[in-house]
Model the fold of this input.
Amino acid sequence: MSVYTQGIIVDNIHFDIPLVSLKRSADFLDKFAERTEDGDLKRELIGVYYNFTLTVGDSAAFGDSDYNEFWNKMTEPVEFHDFVLPAGTGTYSFRGYISSVSDEYKKILDGEAEFSAFTCKMTAKQPARSPT
Done:
């Protein structure tokens, strides 16, 4: 596995993190969708939202970023964050919120903790694509 060198940016703060996975989903959100009596579907599509699930490696593998600083930013009680994530060609920027964050203690030695399996879900505030 190669070392991840791009990092992510959250609210203009760069985090040099050991990326394990960045799962992207395209969620289609309707203003309404209902079936008529004859079985036909009527819907009004608002747009397609690109949402992400980020998984990072052990806290000991963080580059210049401090794991606790990263945890605190990702669990900050604010309505929205500005994200810049790696994309197929360059980066993808969006405004969104974090719906869940989790990690697990890997080991605790002499009062020092090491964490693993950090995962968070990022949900877009606005659609990435809208119908024309």
